[in-house]
Design the sequence.
């Protein structure tokens, strides 16, 4: 399954370029060079399709669960002061998404979108700590009856387009798709400091399935 976020100029250009290169390669001599060009273009197109894949996921039931919004490896778990939406101490859980991960993002909780802010910025490597503050990003705050969370879609060194369909006032369901970050990136999730964190640095997160933390009872 290809993500709807891939049916735009990026996916169209990849398909068009592949076809044009293959057609042009027919006239290339010697034959070994022709086959190398065709194979390289097929690999390029295959990687593009792989990047925009969008597999189905089964989200764990439980209103207190805070679910991973992105696929990737957990690179940060630490306490921070969060002043934009939670207004207090929080746990920051950061997930680094490599170009080989699924890049479709999913809602961490069921609730209401209370805050959305786009921040233009720079493009440091997404695994660096300064990317969390200085890179281009979209910041989203959600709330339900158990508490508040904030998360950031952060552009990386290669990823330079953030897609986020969420708007203030939207009622959302945990595990549903809401956007993606194209070509490698990072997502920071801020949860209340009294939440129970369920992951550690080095763990692999699966969007829509992995429980990052639980709201305090």
Sequence:
């Amino acid at each position: 399954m290809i993500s709807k976020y891939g049916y735009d100029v990026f996916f169209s250009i990849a398909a068009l370029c592949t076809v044009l290169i293959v057609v042009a390669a027919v006239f290339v001599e010697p034959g070994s060079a022709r086959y190398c060009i065709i194979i390289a273009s097929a690999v390029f197109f295959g990687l593009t399709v792989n990047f925009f894949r969008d597999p189905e996921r089964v989200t764990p039931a439980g209103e207190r669960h805070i679910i991973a919004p992105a696929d990737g490896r957990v690179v940060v778990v630490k306490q921070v002061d969060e002043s934009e939406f939670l207004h207090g101490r929080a746990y920051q859980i950061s997930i680094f998404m490599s170009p080989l991960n699924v890049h479709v993002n999913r809602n961490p909780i069921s609730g209401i979108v209370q805050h959305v802010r786009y921040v233009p910025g720079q493009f440091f490597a997404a695994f660096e700590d300064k990317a969390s503050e200085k890179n281009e990003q979209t910041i989203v705050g959600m709330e339900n009856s158990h508490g508040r969370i904030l998360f950031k879609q952060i552009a990386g060194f290669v990823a330079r387009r953030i897609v986020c369909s969420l708007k203030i006032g939207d009622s959302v369901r945990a595990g549903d798709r809401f956007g993606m970050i194209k070509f490698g990136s990072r997502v920071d999730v801020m949860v209340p400091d009294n939440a129970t964190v369920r992951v550690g640095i080095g763990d692999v997160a699966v969007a829509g399935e992995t429980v990052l933390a639980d709201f305090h009872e």
Notes: Residues 166 and 184 are 21 Å apart (CA to CA). Helices lie at 9-25, 31-51, 131-134. Residues 4-51 form one domain. Residues 31-51 form the longest helix (21 residues).
